[in-house]
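Action item from last meeting closed. Structure (320 res):
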């Protein structure tokens, strides 16, 4: 609860601050962050004795990263159900705003349909609204999906140190203790995005694509079965407006271009730019790289193993 409240404050103050250019040096970036190893972060989450403790008591503050279409929402949503913490996806927040005909709807529509990145200000406005709602409903902990997307979003708030907001800002930022970076072949991502469908009646998500890549030249093969809808939904399937080949390729191009630039930059310069945030969290021992080996049947058990959550999943299944 306290973390959600502090993050909400951070988002509100960032909106007023983000238009100001501030130089952030290495000492500022490191302020408030503990150099903890990834193993330590996982152990801290799993130290609930025999695993019977309520996940809400473990203060789950996780982030899912990965390029567009990799499956962040799928796996973040599954972990959300397993651990009983809210899954907050910026993509869902954007789509909700688009369907609401609110004040941001037209602006968002133009940006999304072109495959461009949303501005920090828009993202923070949507997240602030969502966190306030969750706080009012008594939510505790979170799994963020699609945020923070850039280093600027992750560390610009720290620049407020120079504006005397240090304590309340750092309390809301430093509690993110694990970042899961999903990775998948780009040709598979393209096929998956083009195969995505949604039932406009029940809201169910499906995928018509069959991925069948043969192993060759030392590279492993990959198979993903389609996730087909029930007969009652077949005639009601719709495609997201941004799931066209042109838009998906543009989103991937922007992501890859930003990532390559980020790899060549010193950390101090990187922090002042809108670059992918993977290196930022890797340097703090908080990044878990996870290569998806296939579809959900193949990937889900291995992800649980990487997170030391197999026992928790078994106990939940037995209880059901």
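Sequence:
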């Amino acid at each position: 609860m306290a973390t959600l409240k502090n993050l909400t404050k951070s988002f509100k103050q960032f909106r007023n601050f983000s238009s100001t250019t501030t130089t952030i040096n290495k000492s500022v970036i490191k302020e408030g962050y503990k150099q903890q190893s990834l193993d330590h972060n996982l152990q801290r989450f799993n130290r609930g004795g025999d695993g019977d403790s309520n996940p809400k008591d473990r203060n789950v503050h996780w982030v899912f990263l990965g390029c567009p279409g990799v499956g962040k929402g799928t796996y973040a949503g599954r972990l959300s159900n397993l651990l009983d913490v809210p899954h907050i996806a910026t993509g869902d927040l954007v789509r909700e705003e688009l369907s609401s005909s609110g004040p941001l709807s037209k602006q968002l529509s133009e940006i999304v349909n072109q495959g461009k990145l949303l501005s920090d200000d828009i993202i923070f406005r949507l997240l602030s609204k969502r966190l306030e709602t969750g706080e009012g409903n008594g939510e505790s902990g979170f799994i963020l999906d699609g945020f923070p997307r850039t280093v600027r979003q992750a560390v610009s708030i720290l620049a407020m140190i120079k504006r005397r907001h240090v304590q309340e800002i750092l309390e809301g930022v430093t509690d993110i203790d694990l970042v899961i970076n999903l990775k998948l072949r780009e040709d598979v991502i393209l096929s998956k995005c083009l195969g995505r469908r949604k039932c406009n009646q029940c809201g169910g998500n499906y995928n018509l694509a069959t991925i069948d890549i043969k192993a060759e030249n030392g590279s492993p093969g990959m198979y993903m079965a389609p996730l087909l809808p029930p007969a009652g939904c077949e005639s009601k399937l719709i495609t997201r407006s941004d799931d066209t080949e042109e838009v998906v390729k543009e989103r991937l191009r922007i992501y890859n271009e930003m990532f390559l630039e980020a790899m060549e930059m010193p950390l101090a310069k990187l922090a002042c730019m809108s670059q992918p945030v993977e290196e930022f969290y890797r340097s703090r021992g908080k990044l878990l790289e996870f290569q998806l080996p296939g579809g959900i049947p193949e990937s889900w058990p291995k992800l649980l193993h990487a997170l030391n959550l197999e026992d928790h999943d078994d106990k939940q299944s037995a209880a059901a």
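Note appended to the action item: Residues 2-186+265-302 form a domain with the Rossmann fold fold (CATH 3.40.50.300).
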